[in-house]
Amino acid sequence: MIFDTDVLIWIQRGNLQAAETVESERDRYISILTYMELLQCASNKEQHRYTKSFLKDFNFSTLPLTENIGHRALIYIEEYTLSGSLRAGDAIIAATAIENNLVLSSGNSKHFKQIKDLKLKVFKP
Prior knowledge:
The chain is of the alpha/beta class.
């Protein structure tokens, strides 16, 4: 399963349901964009170290941005931005899930529901 940034933020805030959701999955993935978003939210080097340690402790594998993922994300932006306000970051995360044949766990179902090929597991905090 690939996890959206919001699920990891819930864990860092102490949400046990989010932690249990992640712990219930043997194979845990994030997109490179999620990794960047987590680091971007940090306000200092200590928080950077905490984020890196958190991802290592939970055994997350970071999936790279490939040419196919970029191309698929571009198609999603063309298809869904005007009708559903899809943002570039969400398009990349969804494309990463689809290109790697993974289910996406996210609490932001409204961001992803219009993408037909996406297998989405909604997390409710």
